[in-house]
Amino acid sequence: MIKKIIVSLSLLFSLASVAQEGSASPYSFYGIGDARFKGTTENRSMGGLGILPDSIHMNLQNPATFASLKLTSFTVGGSHNMTNLRTSSAKGDTQRTTIDYLAVAFPTGKLGFGFGLMPYTSVGYKINSFSDQEDGPNRAYSGKGGLNKVFLGAGYQLTSKFSLGVDFSYNFGNIETKSLLSQNVQYGTREMNTSDLSGFSMNAGLVFATKIKKYDFVSSVTYSPQGNLKSENERKIATLAGTGGSEIVVEEKDIVVADSDLKLPSKLAFGAGFGKKTNWFVGAEVTLQESSKFGNRYNDITNVSYEDAKKFSIGGYFIPDYDSFTSYWKRVTYRAGLRYENTGLVVGDTSIKDYGMTMGLGLPVGGSISNLNVGFEYGRRGTTHAGLIKETYANIFVSLSLNDRWFVKRKYE
């Protein structure tokens, strides 16, 4: 049954991941869009903590954890985002629902494999700017698209305490941005930019897990070297006629713009934690990203630069009694965490920062070892100072983790 579910959801995800708009942020205009969280609901509910190996839960942030799996695992997750956008003089609200990831992993002794598909970045915004003057220009900006990644990884248990892993990703996608200029004249102007993106990247990880008296101690490190991304760019300028929001093209020209060779920044993450794995765990993680070497798809974008990004996460979980027969809620996993991030984006002279707090539940499904995970995140990004935008957001995310034993040779026919 689980195999039929996997096939059906995989086909659905493959179609939906290309078409969805995963962001409603004006900050997604820059670079290749908003960076999406590249982990599971379980990790995200703990402030994004990605250091934990588990026998039945996939950890997509560190490929070394694939070696810890004891059962074939399938997971799919999605989220609903609600954001309030505010400047010093205006405000607005947006909502988005997206599919976040689909992955399958399976153990083969000391070696574990995993593969899947997830969004890497998202672009999605609509901004209107109206002139204070009667005959002044009015502008409208919009964008959609983003970058997706398909990955294949493996983890190997070197010793009883050390596991090593690596995954390789092919990144692909399309970004379309549009700006409209209209005045109290017969015709308006439209500029449309399109970028087709593709390239490869990799991620390597190491996990150290041991016992210190009666406690479990885990430390983790991952490193992603700088990746390359090819951006094939097109630009079209059109003269428009029409009213009521319609765009009737009178004349359109192709403008020659150079293709771009972008660099996906190198990233180093390391963390540690301790606890009793079947009862409680708490940990912290630091992520450093060399975003200062990143650039825009077009060279004529001004007033923006990049600096090295930093993220700090702390989180954990609590299970009252994981094998309780009398109380369902004692078998539930309760998760929580905090996150602070300097995103690396600098608009004008202002660094864009992101703060968030998370919580979540891991709900056992029936009497099986599969589970339904739900989480909530509340946070803030940006500021209203210097003419910028402050985003206050709430995210609800849900995932299904199905676990089964595959590749077992039958003793009886």
Describe this structure in words.
This is Aromatic hydrocarbon degradation protein. Keywords: Signal. It comes from Flavobacterium gossypii. This protein has helices at about 1-20, 40-45, and strands at about 35, 70-85, 90-110, 110-130, 140-155, 160-180, 190-210, 215-225, 225-240, 250-255, 260-265, 265-275, 280-290, 305, 310-320, 335-345, 350-365, 370-380, 390-405. It is mainly β. It has one domain (about 1-405): Porin (Beta Barrel), CATH 2.40.160. A 14-stranded antiparallel barrel has the order 2-3-4-5-6-7-8-12-13-15-16-17-18-19. Residues about 1-20 have low confidence and may be disordered.
What percent of the residues sit in helical stretches (DSSP H or I)?
under 10%
Number of strands: 19
H and E order: HEHEEEEEEEEEEEEEEEEEE
Oligomer designation:
single chain
- Could you say what the CATH architecture is? Beta Barrel
Low-confidence spans: 1-19
Shape: elongated
**Spatial sequence of strands, sheet with the most strands:** 2-3-4-5-6-7-8-12-13-15-16-17-18-19
**Protein structure class:** mainly beta
Mean pLDDT over the residues: 87
Any idea how many domains? 1
How would you sum up this structure in a few lines?
Keywords: Signal. This protein has 413 residues and is mostly beta strands. The chain is built from two helices and 19 strands.
Question: Key features?
Answer:
about 425 residues; mainly beta; Porin; 14-stranded antiparallel barrel; 19 strands; about 5% helix; disordered N terminus
List the helices and strands and how they pair.
Blueprint: H1 2-19, E1 34-35, H2 41-44, E2 72-86, E3 91-108, E4 111-129, E5 138-157, E6 162-182, E7 188-212, E8 215-224, E9 227-241, E10 248-255, E11 260-264, E12 267-276, E13 280-289, E14 304-306, E15 309-318, E16 333-347, E17 350-364, E18 371-382, E19 390-404
Antiparallel strand pairs: 1-4, 2-3, 2-19, 3-4, 4-5, 5-6, 6-7, 7-8, 7-9, 8-12, 9-10, 9-11, 12-13, 13-15, 14-16, 15-16, 16-17, 17-18, 18-19
Keywords: Signal
Protein name: Aromatic hydrocarbon degradation protein
Signal peptide: 1-19
